[in-house]
Amino acid sequence: MMFTTGVSLGTMQELEVMLVGSANIDLVIRTPRFPAPGETLQGSDFQTFAGGKGANQAVAIGKIGGNCGLIAKVGSDGFGKQLIESLRTNNVHINNVLQVSTESTGVAVITVDAQGQNTILVAQGTNGLLAPEEVRQGLSHASFKVLLVQLEIPMEAVMEASKFASGRIFILNPAPAQELSDELLSRVDYLTPNETEAHLLTGILPVDSKSCDQAAAVILAKGVKNVLFTLGSMGSYLANASGGRLFPAIRVTPIDTTAAGDAFNGAFAHYLASGETVDRSIRLANIAGALCTTKPGAQASMPSLAEILLHDQQAL
Ligand code: RIB
Question: What is the pTM of this model?
């Protein structure tokens, strides 16, 4: 038997940022190096964390005091309950986090090496059941300034969300990497690919200003208004019709880069919605992304507002 809980309230919900995305439980093992195909390696420090790109980005906002809601789908199993609890305690509105009993909650198996780099393998689970009509219902019962979406849910759900872009700022984080239709891209205000995602979308790996500009030109030609590449320890690069510019990262010693992009996207959406300038929003998002790499886990590693502001002052 299937049951669904958490269906949208009839009243209009007032938010800064509305997210549509995934929620996963992350099963994480540290490894001295990544195993080769067919090889068995001894890892260590197994831990379970609340994760998933949509939920991570929502928690990134909630932890810095933003007012956000998430449209997502989890199972009615223990993992689903753990995710709802993490969202709730981190200040995320959960009335559109639906629970179903027909499928298991999404799971990510993650390995983190000695340099803090990771590999992530996701079993989509209930994320794959998020339906366009559920997205439509959640979005049409909320008022929000920024719409933030990733690609760990069905493309039909992403397309439905994109229909609500008009009159708002629509940020699409194209993760995990996949090809995107021109119809979707033409609705995007900010596309935020990392190097791998940019390479898949354009055939160009953005590693410096020249290659960023070349890759951005391909994306901008499809109607995207701004491209914001996340470039790890280099920082981020904004490109639009006025040209391109690098925003350098702050220096940190990373121990786990998992969810750094999520910290960046969440913070960027929050600060834009709060009325900060684009430049300042990128600067603070860079700090959030860098600080996320200094702690283990996904949602557990999202920085607080105090941590971000401290590093903002120190870097002046
Ligand atoms: O971006 C990091 C996230 O990717 C992890 O939390 C994992 O769940 C996958 O969705």
Answer: 0.94
Judge if the beta carbon of residue 202 lies within 6 A of ligand 1. no
| Paired sense of beta strands 17-20 and 24-30, if any | unpaired
Among protein residues, the one with the nearest Cα to ligand 1's atom 2 is: 259
Cα–Cα distance for residue pair 100/178, rounded to 1 Å: 27
List the beta strands (DSSP E) in the chain. 4-5, 13-14, 17-20, 24-30, 44-51, 68-75, 92-93, 97-100, 106-112, 118-123, 142-143, 146-149, 169-172, 190-191, 226-230, 235-240, 243-248
pLDDT digits (tens, 9 = 90+) for 277-305: 999 999 999 999 999 999 999 999 999 99
Pocket of ligand 1 contains residue 56 by CB under 6 Å: yes
- The first and second tokens of residue 26, run together, are 């992350």
Q: Where are the domains of the chain?
A: 2-7+14-315
Distance CA 265, CA 62 (A): 13
Domain 2-7+14-315 matching CATH 3.40.1190.20: the answer reads yes
What's the gap in Å between 26 CA and the centre of ligand 1? 7
Does the beta carbon of 230 sit less than 6 angstroms from any atom of ligand 1?
Answer: no
Residue nearest to atom 9 of ligand 1 (CA): 52
Ligand 1 center to 298 CA (angstroms): 7
